[in-house]
Amino acid sequence: MLKKTMNEALNGQMAKEYESAYLYLSMSAACEAMALKGAAQWFRVQYKEEIEHFERLYKYVFDQGGTVRLAAIAQPPAEFASLKDMFEQTLKHEQFITRSINELVDLAVKEKDHATAIMLQWFVTEQVEEEGNDRDILDRLGMIGDKGHGLFMLDRDLGKRKDD
């Protein structure tokens, strides 16, 4: 059984995961408008991953006898300066999510909620991967810039990302 504080914190994280999904779907749309079909695909896959993260938390709360309360989410930005700008915002956002997950782990430990602490370890590992992927793409964008053949090749590579 989830304690009230943990239940509320997990509901808050669900809202953050859904906001993440909405942000990445907006970035996908912006990439479509910029004729970056590969990047649009990459962000659509990222969108779907965030929905899966939400659903993982949703199911866990119910499995632990908790209550789900869906919160309103903010409208994401619709315009971005460049693909590099999108990935800079993506990394910054994932760092925010990492801090939020770490706070949840701290709360679970404080509450002596071992089941939640164990479940959250999956998210801790996932965030290491998320931030690493974003840094890798930003490094590549730093080498090639936002225009030309390098961007074309990167966009093609990003388009190879498939749903699991």
Q: Shape from CA axes?
A: elongated
Provide the CATH top-level class: Mainly Alpha
Domain module count: 1
Task: Look up the CATH topology.
Answer: Ferritin
**Which structural class matches the secondary elements?**
mainly alpha
Can you give a write-up of this model?
- It is built from five helices and no strands.
- The protein is 77% helix and 0% strand.
- The model has no long low-confidence stretch (mean pLDDT 96).
- The chain has helices at 4-33, 37-63, 83-110, 114-144, 148-158.
- It has one domain (4-158): Ferritin.
- With 164 residues, it is mainly α.
Key features of this structure:
single chain; 164 residues; Ferritin
Q: What does the secondary structure layout of this molecule look like, with pairings?
A:
Elements: H1 4-33, H2 37-63, H3 83-110, H4 114-144, H5 148-158
Helix pairs in contact: 1-2, 1-3, 2-5, 3-4
Provide a compact summary of the structure.
The chain is mainly α. The protein is built from five helices and no strands. The radius of gyration is 17 Å and the shape is elongated.
